[in-house]
Design brief:
eight-stranded antiparallel beta sheet, Uridine Diphospho-n-acetylenolpyruvylglucosamine Reductase, domain 3, single chain, Uridine Diphospho-n-acetylenolpyruvylglucosamine Reductase, domain 2
């Protein structure tokens, strides 16, 4: 009999994430169809002292879902459970993929308030790793969670909110998959809206000088910097009512700019750069010179998200918003002095502060700097060199992206880190939900 589909699992039984930066061999897999099956799997893992991990879209760059025990998928836990039309709060099954949420919300005239540029993840995965978009009026996904349902390793089901099991709620909003299995998540949604997107190159110096002020005024602002150039590609999204006229990117422009130039040609250039490093700087300068101005209007979920077909590995840290120009300048200095040439652009975003315990924007307006390496190039030493800058400035690593920080450092940048540990230890005293990666992060 054909086994269940588990994202990232090969026919030989080896599991790999999207970037192949994490590999493991689970001894069993399952795709439960209801909560009773999940409870039984958790109880069995507890009785046999083995681990159990949940995989969503397998898009985290870290080994957060890796296990040599039981690996389960929540792909059968997908869809909307309930919509509160008075509050616009929507109860989703936790395995719902982000790519499906726009379609699911459309009949109710609702949308997610914000999104990142990748929608491959499951909702539970996005919550557990503090996934975010950009926009200083908006939190990441976890900050929009108003309630959730979780099954603990004991098999017990808990409903959680700010009023009901508040400690467990705060922990599970960014739970790292370390407390139990999320089965339902309530998200604060907003009325459906369109976005007017403008993409244009501009001088990097001006962008860095103005970013902290501009991100306050713009609904959504982010920029990309091609290493060894003086050019930033700015993307500004302005929110419009849903009645606004659609003016989407024409199919032929999307084919040429997004698919051919943004993916196919870029992949080829990355391959050339990996083989002939001396070509990287000229290629990046050529790319920066050929960036075109583009303006279009479409539904929010189609503007926020961009196709990402070139495999890469990524590290991203959040820092205090006001510190961005200084931190970016130091990152640039390290990057340009690094002996290997870097093909991928850096990405800069910002979000509002939230009150999650382990959210990367917990308690502070935050700017994010993401650095990437093409999957065909070595990443570890480069990331560690850049990471020293982030650490110096009290940066917080994105939980789903590569970094080297452990519990001693994390306790110093998260005021509620020990509160989280207390709730985690209470929920999972035997460490069923832990793996080697999480034990290092949490000191457990």
């Amino acid at each position: 009999m054909k086994g269940p589909h588990i994202p990232g699992l090969s026919k030989t039984g080896t599991w790999r994430n999207w970037a192949a930066s994490a590999v493991s061999t689970p001894n069993a897999v399952a795709a439960p169809r209801d909560e009773s099956e999940i409870s039984a799997l958790l109880v069995s893992a507890s009785e046999t002292a083995s681990s159990l991990k949940v995989v969503g879209g397998a898009h985290s760059f870290t080994p957060i879902a890796a296990t040599d025990g039981m690996l389960i998928s929540l792909d059968y836990f997908s869809g909307i459970i309930h919509v509160d039309t008075l509050t616009n709060r929507v109860r989703f099954r936790a395995g719902t993929r982000l790519r499906d949420i726009g379609r699911l919300l459309e009949p109710y005239g609702l949308a997610l308030a914000n999104m990142g540029d990748i929608d491959h993840q499951s909702l539970a995965g996005a919550i557990n790793t503090s996934t975010h978009g950009t926009g200083l009026a908006f939190t990441g996904f976890s900050g929009a969670v108003t309630a959730l349902r979780i099954i603990l390793p004991s098999g017990e089901v808990r409903e959680c909110s700010a009023e009901q099991n508040p400690g467990l709620f705060q922990s599970a909003r960014v739970g790292l998959g370390a407390l139990g299995v999320l089965t339902e998540i309530t998200i604060q949604c907003v009325p459906r809206f369109k976005l007017l997107a403008r993409e244009e190159p501009e001088p990097l110096a001006g962008m860095l000088e103005s970013f902290v002020d501009r991100v306050v005024l713009a609904d959504h602002l982010e920029f990309y910097w091609f290493p060894y150039t003086e050019t930033a590609l700015a993307k500004t999204n302005t929110r419009l009512p849903d009645e606004a006229r659609l003016d989407p990117v024409p199919w032929h422009s999307r084919l040429v700019n997004d698919e051919l130039m943004g993916n196919t040609a870029f992949a080829a250039l990355c391959q050339v750069g990996a083989k002939i490093p001396a070509t990287v700087a000229p290629i990046n300068k050529l790319a920066a010179r050929t960036l075109a101005v583009r303006t279009y209007t479409d539904q929010s979920e189609r503007v926020f998200v961009a196709p990402r077909r070139v495999r890469f590995r990524e590290m991203e840290y959040s820092v205090e918003l006001a510190a961005l120009p200084l931190v970016f300048a130091e990152v640039r200095t390290v990057l340009e002095a690094y002996p290997q040439k870097i093909t991928f652009p850096l990405e800069v975003r910002a979000t509002a502060a939230d009150d999650t315990w382990l959210g990367t924007a917990s308690g502070r307006q935050s700017a994010y700097i993401a650095v990437h390496r093409y999957a065909g190039e070595p990443a570890r030493e480069f990331f560690e060199a850049i990471e020293k800058v982030f650490i110096h400035h009290g940066g917080r690593p994105h939980w789903g992206k590569l970094h080297t920080r452990g519990s001693d450092y994390l306790a110093g940048v998260y005021p509620h880190f020990n509160d989280f540990l207390a709730q985690r230890d209470k929920a999972d005293p035997d460490g069923i939900m832990l793996n080697e990666h999480l034990r290092y992060l949490l000191g457990r």
